[in-house]
Amino acid sequence: MEHNKVTIKINDNGSIRVTGEVELIDAEGNRFATKPSFSLCRCGHSANKPFCDGAHKSVGFTSAPRAAK
Questions:
Q1: Contact 46/15 with Cβ under 8 angstroms?
Q2: Edge-to-edge strands of the sheet including 37-40?
Q3: What's the CA gap between 53 and 19, in Å, rounded?
Q4: How far apart are CA 68 and CA 34, in angstroms?
Q5: Shortest CA distance to 42 belongs to which of 57, 32, 31, 29?
Q6: pTM for the full predicted model
Q7: Do residues 55 and 47 touch, judged by C-beta distance below 8 A?
Q8: Could you tell me which residues come within 8 angstroms of residue 40 by beta carbon, excluding any fewer than 6 positions away?
Q9: Which residue from 47, 50, 45 is spatially nearest to 60, judged by alpha carbons?
Q10: Beta bridge pairs of residue 16
Q11: Residues 3-56 pLDDT 10s
């Protein structure tokens, strides 16, 4: 049985992109409906939390973290 790797990408000045087979659950254990690839809000201004709706663009959110080399 092959296990597909999940990728989580922190986009510069934007969302967190999740690609792969994952379960996204809330604090009570309820499952959110997701697609094989989706974006999570990082700026806190999305009207569709926990998903990104592009609000980071209008509020001027900036963040571009980098992993240690």
A1: no
A2: 7-10, 16-19, 37-40
A3: 17
A4: 30
A5: 57
A6: 0.89
A7: yes
A8: 15, 16, 17, 18, 50, 51, 52
A9: 45
A10: 10, 40
A11: 679 999 999 999 999 999 999 999 999 999 999 999 999 999 999 999 999 999
